[in-house]
Predict the structure.
Amino acid sequence: MFSFNTPFKFVLKHLGAALLYAYAWSAFAQAQQLGVSTDAALAQYRSMLQDANPADLYVAKGQALWTKARGPKAQSLESCDLGLGPGVVKGAWVQMPRYFNDTRRVQDLESRLVTCMEAIQGFNTQEIIAQDFSKGERANIALLAAYVSSESQGMTFKVPQEHALEREMYASGQELFYMRGGTHDFSCASCHTQDGRRIRLQDLPNLSTSAGAGFAFGTWPAYRVSMGSIWTMQQRLADCFRQQRFPKPKYVSPATVALSVFMGVNASGQVADAPGLKR
Amino acid sequence: MSDPMRIRLQSAGGLTTVKVLMSHEMESGQRKDEDGKIVPIWNIQDVFATLNGRVVMSSEWGGGVSKNPFLQFVLKGTKPGDKLSITWRDNKGDTRTDEAVVS
Amino acid sequence: MQSFIQKCRVSCSTKGLCSGLIASTLLLSLLSSCSWTQQTNLGIDTDRSVQEKTLSLVFESFEPKGQAELHRLKQDRTQQFCSTQRGLKDQSQLTQSTTQDQLAEQIRLENQALITPPKDGNYFGDFKRGELIAQDGRGKTWSDPSESPSGGNCYNCHRISKNELSYGTLGPSLYQFAKLRGINSAKDFAQASQNSSTDPLIQYTWGVLMNSKAYNVCTVMPRFGVTLNHKTQGHGGPILNEQQIKDLMSLLLDPRSPVNE
């Protein structure tokens, strides 16, 4: 039992992100009334949120998972090859997706983590694919993704296009990006090919440009404040497809990897800043 | 064993801005799980800070504070080398203290 | 897989069944992949092999969930044509620009033909309900029950009523829609609605809400009021029913609506 005999006694309600939210929101609302542009007010609000990214808490957990002996084979992931050699994590993420000799296909980060989790640790790939996001081993993959992406913080994207399959995947990713479908005739391009647009108050990056692709591809995985959890790029893509009224993309399926190749190559030369912070 | 807080101190001219990111689920006691059952309250109730052992900030938190709370406050009259510690206590009696040094 | 698709393409274009089949499920999956790769020469001549590879990629990568069936990925002519219209970057690759324009016009007219007037001749409803429909973003996703009605999700893309600040900017502002187009009073509105079937503004607004592609063939705006080719797509009816469209008409055109404040 603590006693609080101090001159400073605050009864602070709605602290934490909620307070920051509320304060920033009132600042935003006031700014609106003062005639400050919506964009400027939103930018201020977001920079205030950026100050403490809870994703940092998850990066630490991801690093612990990377080094921990786990799975039926009781091995750590420290011998996992993310493209720069076994165990090399630093700088690996900004060169993904890429072609891998051992699996003979182009893989994004999550696809490659699944490969390593099966080959090295003995986890079952089909079970991981069948699982829901944020549950079981899929929750662990999100933590691992947060860690691995953080090890490329500040580096520039150089997603390779040397191998023929890498180039094919870019072409397919582009094709899929522009593919109109579903009940609402939506494609990725419907929302993501213009500068300075937003859905409700959510800014939309222009993924067909270097800057837009760099921002989007470079900030997922991210801590999603509304969900209180890390969302990976695969999860972001799946939720896009849900809102496009498409059927569901299978986890780490080729179509999802192709889209990451498209975005990643478009992001060439842009700076990675993951894990990010999203609403 | 709870996860460590991340504490950042920014000092200038005797004023230190303290920024603390805490790792805690912060269940409000109003949320329902997938089966429709209320998820019981599990949240931080008291937070206080000491500077060189003397309490300089204390607070009682009600409901409505979100998961992974972020707390920021300013201290006057700090000097380099001062030791700041932050402590939280939750409704289950768990507690955690982390420290940082004013630079 | 690639050679199967190519065999299917050849036999489909000659209107024959795909050959070499064993089980009925294999037949079904091959037939569906047949109709997907049945290409007429639409849009820009992007590399045919890229299109085929992508379609087979898509076929193996998606699965049905909830009400979102796999056949939602079977594109109709509008979707196929608009998938290849990529803006300035690819315009330079157009080799048959006149044909493109003619094709676009054909498809626009096909969409226009789907628009029907309200069954009872009354184009209007309740603007308060219209505002709720404009705010509601549910419906047609795999996480929505198929029986529940959809919203229009209009605020996702448009500014609409005066006080709603949480609006998107993918589409033009609809604020003061009627006011800016000559309906300034109850009298103007009464006059226009008396001649609904010939009033250009009422016909235009109804038409865009029913089938936006009749006015701009590759617009991002969904085709809210018409049933798309349900034989191949089975979307379970239009996104919005006739009453909902009428309510949105009132939201936009009624001078008492918050849009026209």
Q: What stands out?
A: The mean pLDDT of chain C is 81. Chain C has one domain: 65-261. The first strand of chain C starts at residue 62 and ends at 63. The first helix of chain C runs from residue 2 to 13.
